[in-house]
């Protein structure tokens, strides 16, 4: 069954549509790459899928549940990596991750494992507001994947990472059995390599929808 089905989905901020007439189906375990320039609606689409924003039209089915009616049934099964990191800035990385672990009933050993794998142990007790953007991004990645969500939503996951850090997090956010991913990118050439399905957005409207192999990145 598809993990995500959108039909003619719209979302406004005030009067203005940030998303309009978006339709796409993503099979379980597949990767959808959403690309387009700044302001195209990529983050808005992720927020709708994460049940943080209600759709203002169309039909949204996520993990078999119809949104917004079944938001609560989806929430714990989604991992969102957003630009604003979704962390408590006065808490440390460890405190943030432990809080999240309790919410999702995840063992604290998982927190330590992730802090180690992302080489955050040395900074694990510092308030996250004192971390560099790159380190903050590593904490945010840990937060997004901590509960091993079957749906992973990644907003420009490599944006603030140096190559070494990118290599550390790659196995954490990569393709995994049964894990469906939606990844945004403002650079189609960078993102499309891992796409099973690609959706191009411009001013909130679909500009291109294609399965891998059909996409001409020069277009
Ligand atoms: P992207 O992630 O592709 O940069 P966004 O989804 O962030 O695009 O934004 C799409 C459009 O919606 C933009 O015009 C943006 O300015 C607008 N927008 C985004 N968030 C809000 C908000 N909270 N209130 C009003 N307008 C918003
Ligand atoms: P992102 O692409 O992750 O949404 P942005 O820098 O576009 O990051 O947005 C940061 C915050 O500002 C978000 O909460 C977004 O909803 C809000 N925002 C973006 N554009 C607008 C806008 N035109 N009016 C009001 N809020 C906006």
TrEMBL record:
Domain called ABC transporter: residue spans: 4-219
Family matches, as Pfam families: ABC_tran (PF00005)
InterPro entries found in the cross-reference section: AAA+_ATPase, ABC_transporter-like_ATP-bd, ABC_Transporter_VariousFunc, P-loop_NTPase
Superkingdom in the source lineage: Bacteria
SUPFAM superfamilies: P-loop containing nucleoside triphosphate hydrolases
Signal peptide bounds: none
Membrane-spanning intervals of the chain: none
GO molecular function, one term: ATP binding
Alphabetical keyword list: ATP-binding, Nucleotide-binding, Transport
The name this protein goes by in its record: ABC transporter related protein
Organism of provenance: Conexibacter woesei (strain DSM 14684 / CCUG 47730 / CIP 108061 / JCM 11494 / NBRC 100937 / ID131577)
């Amino acid at each position: 069954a598809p993990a995500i089905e959108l039909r003619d989905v719209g979302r406004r901020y005030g009067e203005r549509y940030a998303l309009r007439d978006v339709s796409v189906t993503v099979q379980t375990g597949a990767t959808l790459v959403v690309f387009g320039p700044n302001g195209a609606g990529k983050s808005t689409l992720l927020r709708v899928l994460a049940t943080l924003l209600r759709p203002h039209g169309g039909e949204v089915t996520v993990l078999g549940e119809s949104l917004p009616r079944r938001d609560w049934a989806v929430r714990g099964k989604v991992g969102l990596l957003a630009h604003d990191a979704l962390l408590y800035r006065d808490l440390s990385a460890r405190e943030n991750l432990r809080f999240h672990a309790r919410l999702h009933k995840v063992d604290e050993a998982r927190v330590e494992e992730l802090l180690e794998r992302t080489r955050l142990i040395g900074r694990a007790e510092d308030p996250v507001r004192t971390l560099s953007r790159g380190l903050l991004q590593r904490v945010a990645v840990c937060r997004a994947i901590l509960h091993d969500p079957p749906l992973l939503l990644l907003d420009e996951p490599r944006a603030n990472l140096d190559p070494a850090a990118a290599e550390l997090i790659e196995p954490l956010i990569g393709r995994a059995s049964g894990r469906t991913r939606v990844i945004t990118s403002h650079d189609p050439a960078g993102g499309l390599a891992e796409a099973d399905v690609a959706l191009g957005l411009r001013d909130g409207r679909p500009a291109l929808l294609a399965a891998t192999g059909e996409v001409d990145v020069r277009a």
